[in-house]
Amino acid sequence: MQHRFRGPPTVVIVAVVAVIQVAGTVFASARQPDHRPLDVLAFALLLLGPATLSLRRRAPLLMLPVAAAAVAAYLALGYAWGPVFLSLALAIVFSAAAGKRWQTWMVVGACAAVLIAMSLAAGDDASLVRALAGTSWLAILVLLGEGIRLRGERVAERHRQREAREQAARDEYRLTLARDIHDVVAHSLSMINVRASVALHLGDRDPDQFRPALEAIKSASKESLDGVRQLLGVLRDDAPLAPAAGPSLARLPELADNARRAGLTVRMDIDAPQDLPDAIQETVYRIVQEALTNVVRHAGARKAAVVVGWEPGSAGGRLTVSIDDDGGGAAGKPEGNGVKGMRERAARLGGTLDTIALDPGWRVRAMLPLEFQAAGRAAS
Q1: Can you tell me whether residue 25 is helix, strand or coil?
Q2: Residue 193 has pLDDT above 60, yes or no
Q3: Of 85, 127, 306, 324, which has the fewest Cβ atoms less than 10 A away?
Q4: Predicted pLDDT at 377
Q5: Would you give the DSSP letter of residue 79?
Q6: 331: domain range?
Q7: Which domain-ending residue is among 99, 130, 163?
C-alpha cells in the first residue's frame, strides 16, 4: 500500500529550526550592541519556539499560542533581532494546515495588531510600511497552510476513492469466483448424483447399461475436479480466473448431452453468431448450465428446450436465451443462489434475466444487449 508523503520527521524540523534560531541570533546579536545581551533566558526562549513545533500533530491547539508567546516575550525583553520568527512562521503554517482556522487567524490578527501598534508608536512612515509588510507575510503564511491542508485533503480523498475502487474490485472478484465455484461444483455434483442413482437402478434391471453409467459418472467427476483445480489455482494466485479455453456457445451441446444422460430429453436450437465476445459466450453457457442443473435436480421434468437466438439491431442487436421445461416449476419458492448468480451474470453485461411460470413447467429467459458490449469495446 502506498503512503502519501507527510514531510520530514518532526524531530528533524525541531532540530533544524532550533539550530537556525540560536546560531542566527548569536551571529546577529554581535551587530546589535544596543540590545540586551543574550543570556540563559534568551536561549531558553529561542529554544522554546522550536520545541513547540513538536506538538504540531499531538496538540496543534497548544503549539501556536506558545510559539507566539515565546517570540513576544523574547522581543519584549529587548533581546537582539534575528531569525526568532522562524518558529512562529512555521507554527502558523502547521496550525492552518491542521485545520485550526479560527485559532490561527486570531493569533495572526493579534500579531498584526501588535505590529501596527508598534509602528504607530514609532510615528514614522517606514515603521508603518514594515508593519504592513509583516501583516501581509502573516496572511501569506496562513494561506500557505490552508493550501497544504487542501492538498492533503485532496490526496486523502483520492486515497479513499482508490481504496473504495480496490475494495469494489475485490468484492466483484469474490462474487465472480463464488459464482464460478457454484456453477462448476453444483452442476457436476448434481449430474453425478443423478447418474449414480441411474446406475444403482440399472445395476439390477439392466446390467449391460451399468458400465456406461459408471463411465458417465467418471467423466463428470473428472470434469468437476478439473474445474475445482482451476478455481483453487485462482485462490493461490497462480492461475487466471478464466481458463484459456473457457465456456462458449460451441460447448452448449455438451450440457445437453450431460442432461440427456441424466434422463432428460433436451432440444437445443442455437441461432447466434459464433464470434461473440468471450464474456457473452461464457455468460450464456453458465446460464444454460445452471438452468439445466435446476431442471434435473428440482423440476421433475421429462423434457427441456434450450433456445439461443439473435435479434439484429442498429448497434449489434441483442441475444436471447431461454430454457423451458415441463416440470413442476418453482412458483412460490424462494430464489436460490443459482438464480441469483444467473441474474448477476446477465446484469454485468447490461442485460436482464426473468423466470416465468408456464403451464406446465418453468422458463428462464435472459436478454443480453450486444450494443453494451460494442460500447465497452469502443471505450477500451
Answers
A1: helix
A2: yes
A3: 127
A4: 42
A5: B
A6: 245-380
A7: 163
Task: Look at residue 77 and tell me if it is in a domain.
Answer: yes
At 23, the amino acid letter reads A
Question: Which grid cell sits at 361?
Answer: 413447467
- What's the CA gap between 291 and 300, in Å, rounded? 13
363 within some domain: yes
Alpha-carbon gap, residue 142 to 148, rounded angstroms: 10
Give the Cβ contact number of residue 123 at 10 Å. 8
Q: Residue 356 is inside which H or E element, if any?
A: strand 352-357
What SS3 state is found at 375? helix
Tell me whether residue 194 is in a domain.
no
Could you give the CA distance from residue 244 to residue 254 in angstroms, rounded to a whole number? 18
Characterize the bridge pairing of strands 265-271 and 303-311. parallel
- The whole-angstrom separation of Cα 370 and Cα 284 is 13
Question: What is the Cα–Cα distance from 191 to 330, expressed in whole angstroms?
Answer: 20
The whole-model pTM stands at: 0.50
Confidence of residue 321 (pLDDT cuts 50, 70, 90): very high
Angle in degrees, CA 224, 180, 349, rounded to 5: 140
The gap from C-alpha 94 to its chain's centroid, in whole angstroms, comes to: 31
Per-residue pLDDT, 9: 86
- For residue 30, the SS3 value is coil
Q: Are 15 and 154 in a shared domain?
A: yes
Q: Residue 81: exposed, middle, or buried by beta-carbon count in 10 A (0-12, 13-18, 19+)?
A: middle
3-state secondary structure of 118: helix
